[in-house]
Each structure stands twice: as C-alpha cells, then as structure tokens.
Design goal:
Largest sheet: 6 strands, antiparallel
Strand content: 15-25%
Structural class: alpha/beta
Number of domains: 2
CATH topology of the largest domain: Rossmann fold
Number of strands: 29
Number of helices: 17
Shape: globular
Helix content: 25-40%
CATH class of the largest domain: Alpha Beta
CATH architecture of the largest domain: 3-Layer(aba) Sandwich
Length: 555
C-alpha cells in the first residue's frame, strides 16, 4: 500500500471511544443535484459514435447515440402510448443484452420507477415481486412470457407486456422495436420531468436480513452518489476511449442484480466503454469473449474466479489486455485469487469489493496499484463511507478490530425497503447505519474482513437465497408437515441449500420428489441440493428455527 494511503489511514484511525465509527481515508464527494441521466452522459460528447453495448451471441449493438435515442423514444412511448404517469413502475425481466439499458434509462427518463426481475424466476417468485411493486408495464422475452403471464395472473396484475423479439407475438403483447426503435422522442415532454435526490429510481429485490425477498428503494441521489464515488482516483479504474479505441468490459454479471447494474453498466457507460453482454454464462462463450474482445477489466464473483484459476481451458492468452479482475458479491479465498493471478499477465491485479443491494452495491474496494494486497480482505472504505462494528446481540458499539455485525452509513444506503416499514426499522439504526447482517472486522492497514453471516441467507454463486422462501414452498407439498433449510459449503457454488423435512403422519414422499417439487417453483440457483427426513427440527421457545444447530448436525 502506498505511503500516502498509509498516512491517510493512520490519520483517520481515530476510533472514537464513544462511537467507534471509522471513516473512509479517501476524499469526500458531493452528491450532485442534477438529473441522473444528465450526469451519466455528461462526458458523452467524445464517444457518441462508439459502440455502447453489443451482444456477444447475436452481435446486435447500439452506439451511444443510438442508445440515448432509443431510450428517449421508449420514455416517450411509456408516457404517450402506454399512458404511464410519473412514479408508475416498469418491470424489466430480461437477460443481459442491448435492450436492457434502453428500458432502464428510458424508464428513468420518463420519470417512472424501474424494478428488475430475475429472468430465471418462476411463477411464484414473479407473483411475489409483481404483487409488491404493481408494475404497469413488463418488458421480457418470449422464452419467459408464459411464466410471466402466470405470475401476473396470480398477482392479479393487468400489466402490459412488451416482448423483445423479431418473431410473431401474442395479440395481447407489444413489440419492443415499435416503442423503442421507431418513432420520435418528445423532448418537450421529457425535459419537464424533474426528480429530487430523495425520489425512488429503482426497486431491485434483496432478501435483506431474513424472510422473502424485499424491494429495495434506491433513490436518484443514491445513484448520483454511486457515480461520484466510483470516480474517486484511488478506487477508479481509468478507462481508455479515444477516436479509434475503446476499453471492453464483458458483462456476465446480470444487469437485474445491483452489482451488474450499477458497477458494470452505469459505472462504464460514463467512461464510454464498450460493454459486451452475455445472455447467460457458458464457458465456451465466455472464453471466446476473453480471447476475441480482449477486455480491460473483468467483473466477476467467486465461482467465476475459481473457474478462471482452475479450469484447464483458461490460458494466459485470455488475459492478454486485462488490467484488473474485480471480485464481489461474496468473499473470495486468498488461494483462489492467487490461482487467477498465476494464469494472468504480469501487470494484472485482482481487486475485491464489498457491498449490498441496500448500499447500491458500494462500500469497500481494494486500492488499485497497491503492492501488498491482503487477498483475504475486501478492501478499504470507499469515499463518504462510515463503518461501525456492533455486538449482534446487544447492539452496542465494538472496536472496529473486534468481530461483530458490519454496519454501514453512506449516501448510497437505500431509502427503505419498499412498502415494508417494519423490515426497514429492523435493519436501520437510529443514527442512520444499515445493519448488514454480516459479521466481520476492520483493519486499517488491510481493510474489511467478512467472516460469517448473522442473517440466514444462503449465497449460491454470489446470489441470495432466502431459507424462508424455500421452506414456504416445501410446506405447500401435501406430505410435508415442517421444513427447515440451511446452506452448506460447496466447492464451486460457495453454498447450496439443503432441506430438513418432517413428513406428515400417514403420508409419504421421497427426497427426489421434493427436490423436483421445489425446482418447478423457483429459479435454478435456488434448487435443493439435498433433502433429509428428520423427526424433529430444533427451534427456540418462540418457534424460530435454530439453523446453527442444524448445521452442526449436517457437519
């Protein structure tokens, strides 16, 4: 770590005896008071004719000029053709592709709110999200249409459906190209849209600390703060864009997830990069992108890091122009980081970060160009970030070098859980800190160490799986009396869900039957790795499942 940064660390190692709050060593930013899209495109004059985004499979692309034009047409269509008003909700249920940012930017430009839905979701999950957010319009692809239709019906939703396809579409749907790629934008209407920094812009979903996934109210101010914080020198990765060259960013992390949305997409549109999207992860397509597009930065999660470091088909040539590999969403083992470095070029760095949907994906990041990186740590506090460690039982402040619950205060922390005041109160302290539900400690010389989770979430391939959701599905099976789900370690996925089930007296079922039953109702990454039949499930006197006891039994 540079001497300058160490001096900054030592200078702010003022852990108040009364609060034990530690602050970022980096310069503070000021949250702009401007429209988000105006701020996003503020540097755009120099790269309007460069490709903004291209699909690695179909090769469909938009230049920056086309992307902004289509977004404005889509925004106009929402207001004038589809009759939406400001603050109406638009849902996007799409894999990564050029159409995703058009829908996202167009929704914001229209003054509406966007909620992003995982395209792997099944009827039950879509129903839950649609019931909570009440979208007026949903944009999807034909492959997801039937599941979406059933989910909307279950939610008693009359949302209009827009399909991204060149093929025939059902009579009750709208073709994407007709409202996004043809027609004219009404800038007289769009220029009247004004948003305050406290207004909601996005509602991605997170499982929070417990229970079913919750809508997270991300404001325009949160997004503006995120852009400014990502632009601070020590944690910014300089991009190269000029008249004949663009840095390339592969987009394998899903745009519906806050990491892919804010860091990969918005964080590089602002610099004029070329984003190359992969609708889904396949080893062949991903390696082709690395070899043929020669990207500058790889944004990954631990399972992809393990793949890059250990798969025999991954060669040094795949990292020819890579300057940084940035890993987030879950802790990366130091040995896995080293394995990737050994495959890479001599100038390549691995950087880690820590954040959450509730913090607009930002909190800590490894300082770039640092000689000695502790790969077990997740980096230092980014600009304007404040951290305190608290006792998870009493809530009392602890010294930052002691292990406790990680609490975050910053201009990127969400406004609330959408329409869920109780859940908001449970995770926010009186002095404005977000309680992450993660255990860890902070070392001023190395950064944040995340050691465990208090919350019950299972992290599968960096994605959140709520045990309560799977338990609820299992209890709808006629032969299940009670169920408890825990996460168990998995070499590649990080964790996988395992269910403990008590059968109803006189009724029978099999583990395979229950696994199939759940798999039909949830996204593939939530499927049960194993079902174990038991006679009892340990609980507290109040009825709360003692998952730690189950984990001891499983181990």
């Amino acid at each position: 770590m540079s001497r300058r940064i160490l001096r900054q660390f030592n200078g702010i190692r003022r852990l108040s005896s009364s609060t034990n709050i530690i602050k970022s060593p980096l310069r503070n930013i000021t949250v702009p008071n401007s429209r988000f899209l105006d701020h996003l495109w503020r540097k755009g004059a120099g790269f309007r004719d460069h490709i903004a985004i291209e699909c690695a499979e179909t090769k469909k692309n938009y230049t920056y000029k086309q992307l902004q034009k289509c977004s404005a047409i889509f925004a106009t269509s929402l207001r004038k053709k589809l009759g939406l008003k400001e603050n109406d909700v638009v849902a996007v249920l799409l894999p990564n592709g050029p159409e995703f940012p058009v829908v996202m930017c167009g929704t914001l430009q229209a003054g509406c709110i966007l909620t992003s839905i995982n395209p792997l979701y099944k009827e039950f999950e879509i129903c839950h999200q649609a019931s909570n957010t009440e979208p007026k319009v949903v944009v999807t692809i034909p492959e997801c249409y039937e599941t979406l239709r059933k989910g909307l019906e279950a939610a008693k939703s009359n949302a209009k459906v827009v399909l991204v396809t060149n093929k025939e579409i059902p009579e009750d749907t709208i073709r994407y190209t007709e409202i996004a790629e043809t027609g004219e934008a009404d800038f007289a209407l769009l220029d009247k849209v004004e948003k305050k920094n406290d207004d909601i812009a996005l509602i991605p979903f997170s499982s929070g600390t417990t229970g079913l996934p919750k809508g997270v109210s991300i404001t325009h101010g949160n997004l503006l703060a995120a852009l400014e914080i990502m632009d601070v020198d020590e944690t910014r990765y300089p991009m190269l864009t000029n008249g004949s060259f663009q840095d390339v960013i592969p987009c394998i992390l899903p745009f519906y997830h806050i990491y892919g949305m804010v860091i990969t997409m918005f964080g590089h549109f602002v610099s004029g990069c070329k984003l190359v999207t992969l609708p889904k992860f396949t080893t062949g397509l991903y390696l082709d992108v690395l070899k043929n597009y020669q990207p500058a930065i790889l944004y990954i999660v631990p399972p992809i890091a393990i793949f890059l470091g250990k798969h025999p088909d991954v060669k040094t040539e795949h990292f020819a122009k890579v300057r940084h590999v940035v890993c987030g969403a879950a802790p990366l083992a130091a040995s896995d980081a080293v394995a990737v470095l050994e495959k890479g070029n001599a100038n390549m760095e691995i950087n880690q970060g820590y954040g959450a949907t509730e913090t607009t994906s930002l909190f800590t990041s490894t300082i770039k160009n640092t000689r000695h990186i502790d790969y077990a740590a997740c980096g230092v506090l980014m600009s304007n970030m404040e951290l305190k460690i608290v006792d998870p039982i009493s809530g009392k402040d602890l010294p930052a070098d002691q292990t406790g619950e990680i609490c975050i205060r910053s201009p990127t922390v969400m406004k609330s859980y959408y329409k869920n005041e109780q859940a908001t109160k449970e995770c926010m302290t009186e002095d404005g800190f977000f309680r992450t539900g993660d255990l860890g400690n902070y070392n001023p010389n190395s950064g944040l160490f995340v050691s465990d989770r208090i919350k019950e979430l299972i992290k599968v391939k960096g994605l959140q799986v709520a045990p309560a959701e799977l338990e609820g599905v299992l209890r709808t099976h006629p032969a299940v009396q009670e169920a408890a789900v825990i996460g168990v370690p998995h070499t590649f996925y990080g964790e996988t869900p395992v269910a403990y089930v008590i059968k109803k007296s006189g009724l029978d079922t099999t583990p395979v039957e229950l696994q199939s039953f759940v798999a039909e109702k949830v996204a593939p990454y939530k499927k049960l790795e194993e079902v174990v039949f038991v006679n009892d499930i340990p609980k507290t006197p109040s009825g709360k499942i003692l998952r730690r006891e189950l984990k001891k039994k499983y181990a």
